[in-house]
Structures are given as structure tokens and as C-alpha cells.
Design goal:
Blueprint lengths: L2 E3 L5 E4 L5 E6 L1 E5 L1 H10 L9 H8 L3 E5 L9 H10 L4 E5 L3 H10 L3 E4 L19 H13 L3 E6 L3 H9 L4 E5 L1 H11 L16 H24 L3 E5 L7 H5 L6 E4 L1 H10 L1 H11 L3
Parallel strand pairs: 1-3, 4-5, 4-11, 5-6, 6-7, 7-8, 8-9, 9-10, 10-11
Antiparallel strand pairs: 2-3
Helix pairs in contact: 2-11, 7-8, 10-11
The structure holds pyridoxine-5'-phosphate.
The site of pyridoxine-5'-phosphate has 19 residues, from strand 11 and helix 10.
Length: 285
């Protein structure tokens, strides 16, 4: 039997049935960038990501995530400053490894900074950080953040190489990129293939997609196990939604999920509180 509790540590528990059960304790983190996306579509001051903070907390979220992009396409500096100041939940600030951005993050002092790759042309973050090519730059960024008592997470692809380099960089967390898994899942089970956003390179037979999906999940699980061996805490995120999330949440080495798009998309129909509660309920499966 698997139970999910939020905000606590991984442990062994007694469920009152006479058996000792594993208890998987998973933090649910809500990425509220997409509220700012909607605001920026009109270039006005509504909706305001700040209005989401109390609702996220009441709905049971464990952490707020925002991404201060170099191009400021959604979250702006004043949003980041206000969210970090006013949130009663810890704030995970995603950012690039650009020195000017790291300096800003050190002044803002979120509880965690997640370093992500950034490319101006992309619609959203595409893939994990290349720790090999940018090792020295990332090392400097990690050291600077640590000097400022900000814990660090690296958004990485789930490979041995990236985990070994993460260990060398002495970070507290890695966030495993689940975007490829989510894309394959959407093409296989989500009807994405029948829309104008069909992913050309994944227009494969169902048999091939199934094989690929199994491979993606195995890689994520293997990476999470290796991270645990290195004493690095594991988060996961990108493209997780109400259809695919349990395939990832059942990997017991993963302690936290970062989810944005699917929760904010559902909230258009159900309201934000229900959208978060619906997701939390799925994590109990
Ligand atoms: N994790 C990271 C590092 C991200 O960049 C994003 C997207 O902002 C997410 C998680 C959330 O992804 P999604 O919006 O697809 O749930």
C-alpha cells in the first residue's frame, strides 16, 4: 500500500492495518508563471500572480515556483520580489546561470534557486542544463548562491553523467526533466498527434511510442535512485498533468513535483483551489 503525505520526510509508517507500509511523502509545488503569462497577454496588472499565493496554500500546495526569465516574458522583477516577500510557503525561483540573474537572485533570497537552461526562442524550457559544457560557470553560480544561504537545484536530464556532475557541484537538489516522457505520453495517450501541435519526431507507431515511454520512465527512475545514492534530493517536473502524473509520482525516490501549465489550465474551468486539490488527490494513488 502506498500513501502520500505532503511536506514531510520519507519514512516508514504504520497504517493501522497491522502491516508496516512505505509512506511516500511528496511535495506538491505549484508553478504560477502561467498567471503572469495571461497578464502579459494584455500588458495590464491582472491577473496578478500574488493573488494565487493564499489559494495555493489553502489548497495544500507545499511550495511556490516562479521563473524569472532573462527576457521577463512572464514573471518580472517586482513579481519575484513580492512573491518571495509575501508567500507563506517556501519559494523556488527558477533562473538561468547568467551572472546578472544570479546576482539578482542572491539579493531576492528565495529559499531555493533552480538553475535551468534558457534559450530566447523557446516556448518553454526545453531539456535539462548541460552541466558538462557549462561546468565552471555553474560551479560559480552554485557557490555564490550557497554563500547567500540559498539552496540549489539543477534542472537536468535523467542521465548518469548529469547526476555524477551534480554530485561534484555539491547541490542539495536535482530536478529531473520529465518533458520528453510527457511528450511521448501525450502522443500515445493524449490525442496530441491529431492536433496542429503534433510533435513531428514522435509521429511513431503505437508500439514504438509504448517502448519509448517505458524507456523514458526507466531512465527517470534510474536517475532518481542514483541521486539518492549521492544524497541529493530529487524533484521532477515539466509537462506533468492529470493524465501522466501518477507514472512519475509512484517513483518513491522522487520527493517533489513541480507542476504549472496543467494546473493553471484546469483552473480556468474549476478554479485554482480545486485544480490543486484534484492534483493532490491523484498523488495519493
Ligand atoms: N520545472 C521547470 C524547471 C520548468 O522550467 C517548468 C516550466 O516553467 C516546470 C517545472 C513546470 O512545467 P509545466 O508548466 O509543464 O508543468
Amino acid at each position: 500500500m502506498i500513501q502520500v503525505f505532503t511536506g514531510l520526510e520519507l519514512g516508514i509508517g504504520y497504517a493501522g492495518t497491522g502491516e508496516i507500509n512505505f509512506i511516500v511523502l511528496l511535495n506538491q509545488c505549484v508553478n504560477i508563471d502561467h498567471i503572469a503569462v495571461l497578464r502579459e497577454a494584455r500588458k495590464i496588472n491582472d491577473p496578478n500572480p500574488l493573488d494565487a499565493l493564499g489559494i495555493c496554500k489553502l489548497a495544500g500546495a507545499d511550495q511556490i515556483t516562479i521563473h524569472l526569465r532573462e527576457d521577463r516574458r512572464h514573471i518580472h522583477d517586482e513579481d519575484a520580489k513580492n512573491v518571495i516577500k509575501l508567500s507563506t510557503l517556501p519559494v523556488n525561483l527558477e533562473c538561468s546561470i547568467n551572472k546578472d540573474i544570479i546576482d539578482i537572485v542572491c539579493k531576492l533570497k528565495p529559499s531555493r534557486a533552480t538553475l535551468v537552461p534558457e534559450n530566447r526562442e523557446e516556448v518553454t524550457t526545453e531539456g535539462g542544463l548541460d552541466l558538462k559544457s557549462n561546468f565552471e560557470k555553474i560551479k560559480k553560480a552554485v557557490e555564490k548562491l550557497h554563500e547567500n544561504e540559498i539552496e540549489v537545484s539543477l534542472f537536468i536530464d535523467p542521465t548518469n553523467d548529469m547526476l555524477e556532475l551534480s554530485e561534484q557541484l555539491q547541490v542539495e537538489w536535482v530536478e529531473l526533466h520529465t518533458g520528453t516522457f510527457a511528450n511521448v505520453y501525450a502522443m500515445l495517450h493524449g490525442n496530441l498527434n491529431n492536433t496542429h501541435h503534433s510533435i513531428k519526431e514522435l509521429e511513431l507507431s503505437r508500439k514504438e511510442l509504448k517502448k519509448l515511454l517505458t524507456k523514458c520512465r526507466k531512465e527517470i527512475k534510474k536517475a532518481a535512485i542514483l541521486a539518492n545514492k549521492f544524497n541529493i534530493k530529487v524533484a521532477a517536473g515539466h509537462g506533468l498533468n492529470y493524465q501522466n502524473v501518477t507514472k512519475i509520482s509512484r517513483i518513491k525516490q522522487i520527493k517533489e513535483l513541480n507542476i504549472g501549465q496543467s494546473i493553471i489550465a484546469r483552473s480556468v474551468f474549476t478554479g485554482l483551489k480545486d485544480a490543486i486539490v484534484d492534483m493532490k488527490n491523484l498523488l495519493k494513488d
